[in-house]
Amino acid sequence: MKITITVNGEKREVETTPSTRLLDLLRDDLHLTGTKEGCGKGECGACTVIMNGELVASCLVLSPQADGAEITTIEGLGTEEELDPIQEAYIEAGAVQCGFCIPGMVLASKKLLEENPQPDEGEIRRGLSGNICRCTGYQKIIDAVKLAAKKLAGTGKLAGAGKSRGKGGGR
Amino acid sequence: MTGIVGSNFLKVDARDKVTGRAIYPDDIYFDDLLYVKVKRAPHPHAYLRKLDVSKAEELPGVVKVITATDYPDLNKFGLIIKDQPVLVGIGEKMRYLGDALAIVVAESREIATRALDLIRVEVEELEVISDPLRAMDDDAPAIHEDGNILITHYLDKGDVEKGFAGADIIVEREYRTQHIDQLPLQPEAGVGLYDEESGVIKLWVATQWLHDTQADIAQSLGLPREKVRIIQPAIGGAFGKREDISVHIHLALAAMATGRPVKLTYTREESMITQSKRHPMIIRAKTGATKDGYLTAWQVEVIGDAGAYASSSPAVVHKGMYHCTGPYNVENVRGVSHAVYTNNTYSGAMRGFGTTQMAFAYESQMDILAHELGLDPAQFRLQNAYQVGSLTPNGQVLSRSVNVRETIKKAIEMSDWKGVRVE
Amino acid sequence: MKKKGRGMATIMFGFGYGEGFPDHSIASVEIEKNGKILIRTAAADVGQGVLTVITQIAAEVLKVDPDRFYIIQGDTHLTKNSGSTSATRQTYFTGNAVKEAAEELLAKIYHYASLEFRSNHPQLGVEDGKVFRHDDPENYLTYWQLAEIVEKKGERLYGEASFFPRTYAPDPETGQSERMYVAYTFLTQVAEVEVDTDTGLVEVLKVDSALDLGKAINPQNVEGQLEGGTVQGMGMALMEEQVIREGITLNPDLTGYLVPTALDSPRINSCLVENEDADGPFGAKGVGEPTTIAAAPAIANAIYDAIGVRFYELPITPEKIIRALKEKEKNAL
Q: DSSP assignment, residue C121?
C-alpha cells in the first residue's frame, strides 16, 4: 500500500505495509535514524516524534494511521549551520551523555515549551516524564529546558558564558 | 590557551547527538542488508536433544539458518573464563534462557522473526536452580562440570577474634540485593560484513573493551585477531552491560555464511533476558565497636549469584568483599566470598562492580551501630574515616588523596546536618 | 501521613582493574598538515565524555585551541589498546596516556623549533599553536608550519605514550596486597526523603553530595556523572528489580521493570572536593562508578530516620514499607 506523509515539511509518498510501524517507516524507508527504538512498547520515549502537533511514540503507530499526517522528527529541528535553541540549550547545559534519549527528549521539550513557554521545574519534570534517560539523572536536561525557555523568550543570555569554552562538535 | 582543563568545555560529540546525526549501530544500513534473529533456549536448564530447522529454512525470504552443526569447531567465549557457548549443540546443555540454539538470517526482520517460531526444539529438562543457596547444596545438580561454586576468595587482616573480644557492641545482620539491569537505553545491536578477499570480518558494534572483545571473538571463531575488525559507532550507554559479547559472534557467523551485510538488533526483552545483570548478593556482616564509637573488627560472608556463566563474576564478588569496611579504619577484618552458578540470567559488570551492593551492607551497619551507641551517625563516620596512612582491608597503605573526612564535613555543611560536631 | 527523614552514606571505591591485572592505555597525538591535531585512542565514549576530557588535556598541554583536535577512536585497526571503559579508569588511564603523549609531542616541537630558531629550549615559548623565541614573539612558527619543515627531514611531530601503572595480586589466603588498586575515590551523600505511610511511597527530596575526585577536568561533566549515578542508585534503592523465578524473568520490559523518570528524581547538589593530589592527569581521580554507590544506603538510612524501620533487602518498595509499618504497629500493641 501507498501512504502520503509530510515529514519535516516535505511531502513524501511511501510504499509500506499495514503492519509496518511508523518508527520503521521513518528509519528503514526514509533513513531518518535520529528516531530511536529503546523498548518497542511505548514506555521509554526514545522513538518520540510530533505527529499532527501531538507527541507520539512512533513504535505504537502503524503506518496507515500516519497516512496524511504531518510529522516532525529530530532531523526537522534547526539546520546544519544553525541549531534550534532547544538543541543549543541541551549542549550548553551539559544535558547530553550517551545521547540515545536526546532526540525524543528534545522533541518532548519542544512540545512542552510550545504549550507552556515558562514552565517551572515541576512542570518540566511532568512534561518529560514519558522519556527515560538512563545517564543524566535528568537534572541537566531540566536545566536545558529552563535555558531553552530563556533563549526562546529572547531575554536570556548565552548559558555558561565566561565559564564554558569552545563550541563543541570539534570532531 | 590554558585553563581548558577545569573548564566546562562543551562535549565534542553533543552536536551530532542533539541533531540526530550521531550514528548508533542500528542506524547503519546497506542496500542488500539481511536481518538476523536468534533462537533462544526454551528452558533454563536442559539438554538439547533435537533441533529441526527445516521448516524455517523453507520459509520464503529465509537465506540461512545456522546451528552448531554448521560450525562444530567454535570455541566458547567469556571475559575471564571461557565458559559460554556460541551455539548450543545437540547433546549439549542450555543453562539459561539466553543461550542461543540457532541463528536465522532473512531478507526482513519480520521473516526472521516468523522463522524462529518454525524451529522445533526438543529438550530433556533438568532441575532449574534459581537460588544460589540451593546451588551450593551437595546434592544440587552441577550446572557446569566443575560444580556450582565458580570461585571463592578470602580476606584476612589482623585478628578478628581479638577484635570482637575487644568490642563493647557487636552488630550482625544479613543483607540481600536484587537482580538489576544496567538498562542502557540503546538495546544491543550491530552490523557485520565479511570481505571474502581479505578474509576480514567488519563489525560495527558497541563494546566497552574494544581490543579484548576483538580477541575474544577471534579466539571463538578460530581466526587471527587481525581478521576481526571492530568499528565503534556512537554508543547508547553501557554501565557494564557492554563488556560481554552479545551480537558480535553471531553477526560474524551470519556475515561469513551469507557474504552479505547483516544486522542484528535485540529487543528490550531479549536484552534483559540474555545480557548481564547486577549480581544479587547475600551479605552477612558482623561488626564490632567500642562504646566510644571506634570500630574493632569486621567480618563478612558474601554469596553472589553469578547466574549461568562466569562473565565478570570471578572479579566482581570479591571486589565487593574487599570493600567490606567502606572507608573506615578497622584493624581486624576477615571475609569469604563465593560466586555461585545458577540458571538465572548471568551476572556481570555494573557500575560499582560488587561494591555497590556491599555499600548497602556497610553503611547500614554503620548507621545501626551509631544509633545503638547513641552517637550521631555523621560523627561516628567522621571519627572512623580513613586518613593518609590508613590501611585498607587488603593491607594497602593509603599514601595520598584520602579526603574522605573532608567529604563528610562538606556534606554536613551542605545538608545543614544537625547534632554533629565539626572541628 | 508523610514523614521526613535524612540519611548519610560515605563510600570508597578502588579504581582501575587492580589486583595485579595488567592495566594500561596507549594514546598518540600528532600535528597534521591540515591545521588539525589528531588524537588516537581506543577508549570507548559511552556518553561519559572521555573524548571531551582527553581533548581538554591535550589542548592544555599543547597550549592550543581545543577545536583544532579531531579524534580517531574505537577502531581495532586504527587505534591501539586503551583498555576498557569500566573500572572508573578512562580519565585516569587514557587521560594520563594522552597527557604523556602530548608532552612528548611538545618536547619534539621545542626540539625542532630550537633548530629553526637557533636557540635553546628555555628561550622558546609556545602559545595558541605557535612556537617562538621569547625575545622575538612576532617571528613565530605555527605547529603546522613546523610539521611541514619536520616532514622534509623525514620526521613527524608525533607523540605516543602508554600509561601502565603496577598493582599487585593479593595473597590468595589473606587477600593482602601492597598495592591493590591504583587509587581510591570517596563520596559522601546525605539524602532527604519523605515517606507516605499510607501508600508506602518514598519521595527523595534532595541529595547533597561531596565527591573527593582530586581534580575535575570538566566540572559540568563530573556533575553529570554524579547526578546520573545517584539516580541509578536511587533506582536500586526503591524500584528496580528484574524478577527471575525458576530461571524465568517475569518482567522483561519497562512496564514491569521500573526505572526512575524525571518525576521520581530529586535535585542533586554537588560539591567537588579538589585537592589535585592524585596521580591522574592534573591530579584527577576517576568518578564514574563511585557516583552510584552511596545513594542506596543513604536513602535506606533516611527511610529509617523517617519511619524507624530498617530494611535489609533491596529494593525498598511501597509494598515492603506498608508491610513493615503494619508489623511495627502490631508489635507495638
A: G
Residue B3 Rama label (left phi>0; alpha psi -120 to 50; beta): left
C6 with C34, same domain: the answer is no
**Residue that terminates a domain, selected from C163, C196, C219:** C163
With an 8 Å Cβ cutoff, the interface of chain B facing chain A consists of: 3-4, 7-24, 26-27, 29, 109-110, 183-187, 234-239, 265, 267-268
Q: Are B224 and B334 found together in one domain? A: no
Long-range residue pairs from C321-326, CB within 8 A, at least 24 positions apart, any chain: C321/C195, C321/C197, C321/C200, C321/C202, C322/C199, C322/C200, C325/C197, C325/C200
Residue of C151, C289, C313, C329 marked active site? C289
- Determine which helix (DSSP H) or strand (DSSP E) holds C158, and give its type and residue range: strand C158-163
> Which of the other chains make 3 or more beta carbon contacts under 8 angstroms with chain A?
B, C
For the question of an ipTM over 0.95, the answer is yes
- Nearest of B279, B312, B304, B307 to residue B45 by alpha carbon: B307
User: Could you tell me whether strands A70-72 and B34-40 are parallel, antiparallel, or unpaired per DSSP bridges?
Assistant: unpaired
The number of domains in chain B is: 2
Domain count, chain C: 2
Distance from CA of C178 to the nearest CA of B (A): 5
Q: Do C190 and B406 touch (CB under 8 A)?
A: no
Helix (H) or strand (E) holding B274: helix B268-274
Which domain, by its residues, includes C112?
A: 22-163
Is C155 known to be catalytic?
no
Q: Does residue B329 share a domain with residue B221? A: no
Query: Do B4 and C59 make contact, defined as CB atoms within 8 angstroms?
Result: yes
- Helix intervals (H) in A57-138: 85-92, 102-115, 121-127
For residue B32, give how far its alpha carbon lies from the nearest alpha carbon of chain C (Å): 24
Of B265, B285, B300, the position where a domain reaches its end is B265
User: Which pLDDT tens digits describe chain B residue by residue (423 residues)?
Assistant: 579 999 999 999 999 999 999 999 999 999 999 999 999 999 999 999 999 999 999 999 999 999 999 999 999 999 999 999 999 999 999 999 999 999 999 999 999 999 999 999 999 999 999 999 999 999 999 999 999 999 999 999 999 999 999 999 999 999 999 999 999 999 999 999 999 999 999 999 999 999 999 999 999 999 999 999 999 999 999 999 999 999 999 999 999 999 999 999 999 999 999 999 999 999 999 999 999 999 999 999 999 999 999 999 999 999 999 999 999 999 999 999 999 999 999 999 999 999 999 999 999 999 999 999 999 999 999 999 999 999 999 999 999 999 999 999 999 999 999 866 554
- Using an 8 Å CB-CB cutoff, list chain A residues near C253: 39, 41, 43
Q: Are B53 and B59 in contact (CB under 8 A)?
A: no
Instruction: Decide if A36 touches B, using CB distance below 8 A.
Output: yes
Residues C144 and C223 in one domain: no
The answer to whether residues C43 and C127 belong to one domain is yes
C64 contact B CB<8A: yes
> Which H or E run includes C140?
strand C136-142
Q: C132 and C252 in one domain?
A: no
Same domain membership, residue C199 and residue C93: no
B12 in a structural domain: no
pTM to 2 decimal places: 0.97
CATH number of the domain at C214, please: 3.30.365.10
Number of domains in chain A: 2
Residue of chain A whose Cα is closest to the Cα of C257: A43
